[in-house]
Specification:
- By secondary structure, this protein is α+β, with helices and mostly antiparallel strands.
- The chain has a domain at 23-74.
- Helices cover 63% and strands 13% of the residues.
- It has 2 helices and 2 strands.
- The chain has a two-stranded antiparallel sheet.
- Strand 1 (3-7) and strand 2 form a beta hairpin.
- Helix 1 (24-48) runs antiparallel to helix 2 (53-74).
Length: 75
């Protein structure tokens, strides 16, 4: 069954209709692709910051640690 998702950006919201995979394999593939997009967005945002590389690395390490902690809390 399709699900309508609202994407809010700095401009007007965009409504998308998403057809989720029905198989477990498809759902795992979707989850992997979504996580890849999130990781790419985070790294690109960090790279674009106007600060020294050492601070960028510290921020990236903090993001990774936060994700690991939340992952442990969910299990």
């Amino acid at each position: 069954m399709p699900k309508e998702v609202t994407v809010i950006r700095s401009m007007a919201p965009i409504n998308l209709i998403v057809y989720y995979p029905k198989t477990e394999e498809g759902q795992l593939e979707l989850a992997k692709r979504v996580s890849d997009v999130h990781a790419t967005a985070v790294t690109q945002r960090i790279k674009s910051l106007n600060c020294p590389t050492s601070q960028k690395l510290e921020l990236l390490d903090a993001v990774i640690e936060t994700v690991k902690e939340r992952s442990r809390e969910q299990t």
